[in-house]
Amino acid sequence: MARLADYYLVVTYDLDKRAEGEGQGRILQRFPEKDWEDSPFPQGIELFCQPSGWQLVPERQPASFFVAVLTDINSERHYCACFTFWEGLDNPQLQKAAGEVDEADDELTVVQPAKVFAPKSLVLVSRLDHTEVFRNCLGLIYTVHVDGLTVPMETVVGNLLTCVIPIAGGSQPAEQERAASSRTITLGAGDRQVIQTPIDDALPVSGSTVAQLFRQLGIINVLYLFCAALTEHKILFLSSSYQRLTDACRGLLAIMFPLKYSFTYVPILPGKLLEVLSTPTPFIIGVNSFFRSETQELLDVIIADLDGGTVTIPECVHISLLPEPLLQQTQTLLSMILDPELEVADHAFPPLSTQPSALKIQDKEIRGVFLWLFARLFQGYRWCLHIIRIHPEPVIRFHKAAFLGQRSLTEDDFLMKVLDGMAFAGFVSERGPPYRATDLFDDLVANHVERIRQEETCPHKVMNHVKELAEKLFKNENPYPAVAMHKVQRPSENSQNNARSQTPFPMLDEVTVELFIDHAAAKLKTAPPVVKAELMGMVPSGPPLGDTVDRNGNVMANSARRLEVVRNCITYIFENKMLEAKKLMPAVLRALKGRAARVCLTQELNQHVLQNRAVLDDQQFDYIVRMMNCTLQDCSHIDEHGIAAALLPLVTAFCRKMGAGITQFAYSCVQEHMVWATMQFWEAMFYTDVQSHIRALYLETEEGEQHNNHDERDGLGDGREISALELASEQSRLWPTLSKELQTERVQKEESTVFSQAIHYANRMSYLLLPLDTSKNRMLRSTGLVDVESVSNSYVTNSIAGSMAESYDTESGFEDAESSDVANSVVRFINRFVDKVCNESGVTNEHLKALHTMIPDIVQMHIETLDAVHRESKRLPPIQKPKLLRPTLLPGEELVMDGMRVHLIPDGREEAMGLMGGPPLLPAEGAIFLTTYRLIFKGTPNDPLVGEQVVTRSFPIASLTKEKRISVTLPMDQFIQEGLQLRSCTFQLMKIAFDEEVASDLAEIFRKHMHKLRYPQHVQGTFAFTVGQCGKMVVEHKTKDKNQSLKTLSKNLVKSAKRTIGRQYVTRKKYSPPTWENRSSFQSELDEDEISVSEEVDQSSLTLSSTMRSSDRQTMSNVVERACCRDYQRLGLGTLSNSLTRSKNEPFRISTVNRMYTVCRSYPGLLIVPQSIPDTTIQRICRCYRQNRFPVVCWRNPRTKGVLLRSAGLHAKGVVGFFKSPNTPASGPSQADSISLEQEKYLQAIISSMPSYSESSGRNTLSGFTSTHMSTSDSSDKLRQPKIGALMKQVMGAKEEAPGNFSRGGKWGSIRGSGRLSAYNPDVGTRLAGKESPQPNGGPSEALFLRQQKAYLYIIGDKAQLKGGKQDSFQQWEVVPIEVCDVRQVKNSFKKLMKACVPSSSTSDPNMSFLRCLEESEWMALLHRVLQVSVLVVELLDSGSSVMVSLEDGWDVTTQVVSLVQLLSDPYYRTFDGFRLLVEKEWLSFGHRFSHRGAQTLGSQNSGFTPVFLQFLDCVHQIHLQFPMEFEFSQYYLKFLAYHYVSNRFRTFLLDSDYERIELGVLYEEKGERKSPQVCKSVWDYIDRLNKKTPVFYNYMFSPEDEEVLRPYTFNSNLKVWDFYMEETLSEGPSYDWELRGQPERVAEETLDKADCGGPKSQRHIVWPCYDSLSKVVPDAITKLLQDLQSLEAELGQTSEKWKDTWDKIKAAQRTESKLESKPSFSSSLLMSSNLSHQRRSQGVYLQESGVGSSINLAMDHETSATSTPVAGRPSTSTLYSQFQSTESENRSFEGILYKRGALLKPWKPRWFVLDKTKHQLRYYESRQDKECKGVIELADVESVIPGTPTMGAPKNIEEKAFFDLKTTKRVYNFCAQDSQKAQLWMDSVQSCLSDA
Predict the structure, then answer these.
(1) Counting beta carbons within 10 angstroms of the beta carbon of residue 923, is it exposed (0 to 12), middle (13 to 18) or buried (19 or more)?
(2) What is the pLDDT of residue 959?
């Protein structure tokens, strides 16, 4: 029984303590005046009566009522019902003002009312929550006062305070009468109320508050709040109604049942206490909306606005929601309750009544849903309870990890947080005890699990279940719905309005009320106590948790086959069949990823333990430890599957003897795992063990006492083990019946059980926490034992812990031991653990102190035994590791560091790991070697199935781009190793982990050496220079040099350069160009320098020899020998004869102005400039250009004589002066103007050199223009022009469109559909094209004449620089602004490309897939841009203009574009010699900064690696793919260059310019004698030598057409990723160091020979991707035949011929053979061309017949067929040869018009016929102008030519003799010429062709 009300008080407005505008309340009276013992009077009630503050108001307000909730210090809730009404009083401000009228006259600006109203509150404080009863009682008191009823107020209050009601209704029918009467109360004012108390007071009473809450906020919002409350977030309700705030809070708590909210709970918070909202702890608080603005700045509070129906979640708050599918199901159920019409809204015949239930019922249905939800969340929770004490009262702990593991919800955020929360801790302590009264939830979670599981997918069945639950809940709240009668008076209407204004609320007589209370108290004392028999019973546990499948359905993981493998392996180990075990090991380690296999392992190992011990030999021990480590490796730190728990007893059981009585246990080898350092794990383990011991303790006593009963019980056939909880429940039931002695005995027994376990665990923990080598601080570092406190899931702060741990740290006598830091941290950890578990399980203080004294001793003893083990383990012979293989080194390459044992870890490339099929080659074990040239890993795979293969991975040390430290856990070993990840720009990545035998300082030395080699101080430190110097870094200058002239050359050159330039340059090796400001001063110095002036009198008139001293002449001949001059002579751009007499009519000359490298440091010594420009002008012009790189000619088109020039971009000053005022007269001799004029003169000189320009007379007249236009654009040009316009538009940044395919000379196909012409910008396009748009009268349109002609010179410039330049309509040059890719872009793009092609780790993220990464790298886009610009330039040059490429500094993009243009335009550069020349000329001589861009020295380290040259090679590769028959070299040649340009093996690509090369004396020594013949210093010599030996660089398809201009497609879709980036050969490392290839093969052959004797062996060889070198293992047919030929010749003892000679012979033979057989000449390269290769040759028009198979077969067929009939279905060879006309190289032996008769029933038509001897065919066209061939008659098929007769429909008036017939194998053609002579000529010509063949 309980009091209905504890206190009654009246609170009124305090007039005395009124502050400015803020009033206060004071308690007028309170009863009883002294506190009850069981519930003290709560403080601060005045604040809660008027939560918005006490104020006087001018008008009377209606009376109000609400219930506030206060929580006292014992977390008991007090319900304060406040009834507030308003009493009138004279305005205190008026009175005050009257008194002080003199002073404050002016203050009374506001007119104050005479009467104001003050609030007065009647308050009831109770521990029961009966809102309606309180409302009625307080209302009654008010009515008595207002209506002036006769009942004395004291009586009413006295009755109210003495009313006693039962807390929970007894549901026994016998007591029904008495219970009902005791629930009816009256206050003696003629009123009667029935109070319905709930049947079970554990269930919350909600009325209709839950339903209201859902109505106000909606389903989703309330679910958010529900999850937020459970996961401990702060929740704030806002409403303008106080009662609604209370109801909402009550509703939220009701749906949280069975969890109870244990944080701050204030449904109504007074305004004065708003700062409570900034508390750090979670809360549920309600605040009046009046204070909304104050709540705005709360950052982490979820605000629910009840009036507006919104829930606002701040950005920083993340609410974990219910796990799916629960969330979805809950939402469905709730909407079925709250909105039943939703389901049938779409039905054609909706049911008539789908009204939702009444609010009260709806409320219970919603609560039913949440009960059902919790039953699903917590099902099986009782199986994870650990009972650790039964007496004197049960102590219970929840095993969270096991629960999550069995429900496989470890990933679930929501459940994790709920289980960690305070509410759940309360749930466990309240519902954990096994013997107690049970309620609805216990019943649901134990007995309805099966039903819930079956129905969960069917909402309607669930709904029925929910309704049953709702019924029970409703019954609980309203046990007697029949007796719900209230008789309470309300105040009458009129009294409410006027009567109450007269009398204030009366003071009560305290004595009378006190008497009432005392009287009642005495009566209660004498009454017999009402004993409600509480039904205690054993709580049912429900069905145990089955093994639910992992979320992602990992059923596969427990396949029986895997478990079988694990079992077999363990059996083999214990039977000592080690070889078998070794083979199974990798499979076992893979299987141990699955949970079932891990459980199986622990069970199997358990069977081999006898009496807690299993002694193994070394190898067995090693294998068992490896398996344990692998098992533990995948355990999370909370060990949810109990694997670590199962292994814990095993690691102390398995051991090996180490001699001298020392035993090593397995635990010393499995310490490196998170789980051992997790406090939670140890607690759970400890509690599990304690529980089993206590269970054993009571089972013994039971067996002793009730032996006979026990037998009976077994006889009942239950036979199931009694669980610890059932035992505990039984013991709790018996407890009250036991005698005192027995009770204390049991308590002591339990306590000592816990104590002994604690000692046991202190030992166990020291085993697993102390590392074998205690001097190493490993344990601390890897697991951070120090801050484990945060991980522990305890709610008890330990008392003794702190103080004891401190004192023992200081007092233990072991401080001076050298391992004290490890020991101390372990001691601290164990102390903390012991404190926690002992406090929770009630160990006595004496025992706890004893434990604390023991722990340091235990640890110290263990350290001592470990030291002995550690000493012994060092003596153990190391495990047999594979022996280290030595790498083969190049001649001259030396080891810097000998091999260090490492593991090569797999990276993101999947082939080597065996994921794409094939065996896993990685991880591999071997050694890493650092040589002067390379970094080499060589070893064998860990997987025993491929153990005999050798894995090699290497890259040149100079190509290292990034090195970072990583830590690696190997699947086989338990240690976390330190490793390195090394990335190379040869697209290689090495992830290595150092073996434990490698000391860490050794690894550090390795890194230092690597850095030293990667970034030498000077370029002379690179391998190309140091090779063969016996490791000593000797600078070559010191040695006496035989080649004296060379030396003098370099000395003199450098001297004169130093003299001329002044000191500044030479001291710095790295070239930094002077800044713009200093530049002019340098030039003036140069002009004033007498020596140089005297030397350069007039450069043009002097011969070269006269200007140089004799010692330099030798040099000059060397300079002349340089690449450039050979090429200039070939192009006819100028010659250097001895007398140097050059014909003055040559437009260009070779200038020696830069021979001392004074004009431009980065240009070559000899340059081509216009004949008319003197050297002095050049010296001035060069200042306008960056780095002084002025325009020079580098190529001339032999056909159009247009030239290609290159230069750097202009300086900003130059641009404006250059373009803005080209024609205005210079005002005064200002320097800028004169320079800009000279510059213009220079460009004009170039333009004048073009024949097309000089032909046109009268330049500035329109007629002049027209004539030029006419003369230059021949018919082919007209057709080509629109193409350029389109190209130009694309390059200048308009939208990309597919190029149209205009038929014209050169190769240009259209892979994109042939019909689409590109829409080109009419302005630029027309201007460029000079294309005539016909006028009505047929003449060209007038407008075109204004600027119709293409410019003579196009300047390709950078968009960014050319702003502000205006074009003059009569200038002859035109600027094409384009956007170039910045060097930075190339650098970043390359980094991303490397990561895409060689990822460092595999990922399943779709955003990181190869193609996505490739796209993001933008590498292809950059290639596209470079190619596009190059093709544009090719087009412009081909159309007869000249082009000047003037971009950035003229040494990156410019070089790329210029080289590509020459490659595309001039077939010579597509041969070996030509390509070498191109690279030497454009890249080396013209100063591409190889060293700087390649970051080859320490100085350029920060600039990073920028592969400009690689980008060029990639572009060449793209062109090669599209035109495979145009290149003499193969793709391998390009890869070879790409590899060696960064490898620093050769000197070719070192240094930044010829000047630097001369300075070092490198430039000419390649020609001089070599010191060591085996060391090649030039990559070109190396390639030549290799090419003589083997055809690896040769392209068998090489079959060039004369004067062929290539026009590749440049769109991204046409570009392919270069396989250089992706391929890898693990068998021998990269194949580009040819000396290293092929050694391993011989060994293999020998072994094969030996094996062959035994019997027939398969000749087949498995070829693995990424392991074998495909070109070697599966060579192409021709290489294979050439190899066979060589080996046969060797066998016969003949001197074998060079492969090239053989090849050329075969080619020649092939030609003659085909001629003899009167066949079209079969081009030799076609031997190999498959259909793909003529894709471009045939201009993108695929062969009409589907040509299956390659043309090799085709050749064979020809030979077999005796007649000359081609095999049907195959295109004949000449069709292959060329299906398309090329205009330039057309070979027209005879041509003219013939009439040809069509096929059957077709008329005769005139056609233009062309007889082509070379192609051996007769072609015909629609008309002479037509480029599109209409048909071809193969002469090979022609049998005879005879005179014919006219047939039907033949042309009239033509003599008969003009007809002739051509008979082929297929049909007869009838022809008719214009007259008989023509006919005879045709017949003769055809006949002669036939006989020639």
Answers:
(1) buried
(2) 92
